[in-house]
Request: fold
Amino acid sequence: MKVWTEQAGYPYITVERTDDFFILTQEYFMDKATFVQPLEQRAAEMLSDSAAVYVNTEPARLYTVPLFIASPKNPNNYTIYWLTDKSLQVPVTELAGGADDWLIVNAHAAGYYRVHYADAELQKIVDHLKTDVTVFDAKTRAQLICDVSFLAGAGVVEQVRILKVTEFLTVETAYLTWHMVQEALAYIDLMLSSRSAHAQFTEYIREKVRHFYTSAAGFHYQPDDSDFTTLTRSYATAIACDSNMSECVDSALDIFTNWTREGAVRRIPMDYRETVYCTAAGHGDEHQVAYIWHHATSADSVEKQRMMKALGCSRNATIINRYLELAAENDTFSYADAYNVFAYVSKYDSGRRLAWQFIAEHFEPLFLKFGTSNLANIVSHVTRGFNTVEDLDEVRNVSARFAEQPMVFDSSIHTTTANIAYMTQNEEPLTNFLNSNT
Reply:
C-alpha cells in the first residue's frame, strides 16, 4: 500500500491492442498544462501563431494497480490482473476471441484510477453498447463517460471524444449514466450556447434522451413509485424538456395549465415542479408567464423560490430586463433573492447577455447594493460563457470604465481568456461531429 499512501494522486491506464497483445500502461494523472503554465498565458499562446509546448516536470510515479478486466469471455464478471510496473502485456487470446471484441478495464468501477482507451478500442465498446447496453452495468457505463470527461479536461484526449462516447445513449435508460452525461457535457453545452452549433447540440441531446424519457414514462407519476423511480423520471423529463422535445414540452404545459385552473385538485408532484414551471416560463403563453411572474414577485407565495428560478427560463427580453430591474431595486426582493435573480436569468445565453448589458449600464447602483465580492460573483456567473475576443474586449472595456473596482472583473477576464483558448482548439471538431450526427 505504500505506493498509494506515500505518494499523491492516482494513475490512468492506457489500453492499446496489437495483433497479439493488449498493452496496459500506467501514467500519473495530472492536468499537465495547468501545472506548467498560468491559464491566461496558455490561452494567449494558443491564440498566437506559435504553438505552446508543455513539459511534465513531475517525477515519475508508479502504482500497484489492480486491473478489473471484463471481456466477451467473461462479460458478467471480471478477471484481475496486477499492474506493478510501467506496463503489462496480456495475450489477446486470453481475453478476446476476435479482432472486433471489446475490452473493459475497471469493470464495475472497482478501482481507483482512470482508463484511457485507444480510439479503436473505445469505438468497439461504444458500438457494442449500441446493440446491447446491458452488457455492462450502469456503474461501468457511467465510469466510462466520467473517465473520458476527466481525461479530456486534463488534455490527455481531445474534447470531442466526450461526444463520441455518448453515441450509445439512444438506448440508455439508467439515471446514473445520464447524470454523468449531463456533468460531462455541461461545459460543451455552455461553450456552444452562443454559437449556431448549439441548435445541433440540442437536437443531438433531444434524440439521445427520447428513449430515456419514454422508458421513464414521462410525467406519469404514481403514488406508489419508489424514490429512485421518481428521481429517474424527474431527471428524464428535465433533460427532455430542456432539449425542447415536443412531447415533454406539451405535457408540461398541459400540467401547468390544469394546475392553474384547478389548484390543489391537480397539484403538480414536487419532483416535477421545477421542470414544469421552467417550461411554462420558456414556452407558455402570456397568461402562463403572467401567473409565474405574479408568484415570483409576491412575498407570500409558497412557491416563490421555484417560480423565481423558473422566470429565468424566459426567452422574452422584456420580461428578463424587468426582472433585473426589480432585483436592482430595494423593495421587491430580499438581498439574497435579488442576488439569485442574476443566477436564474443566466440559464441561457440570451439571459446572460441581457444580464451583462444590465450590469454594464447599472454598475454603480449594483456595486452599492452588492459590494465587491458579491458583485464579482455575479459578474463571473453572468459571463461564464463568454468565449470570443469581442467578449473579452467588452469585459475589459467595462472594467476600464470602473477602474477603481478591478477585482469585480478579474475572474471574468481570466475565464473568458481560457474559454477563447478552449474554443480555438475545440470549436471546429465539436461542430463537425454535431453536423455529422444530427
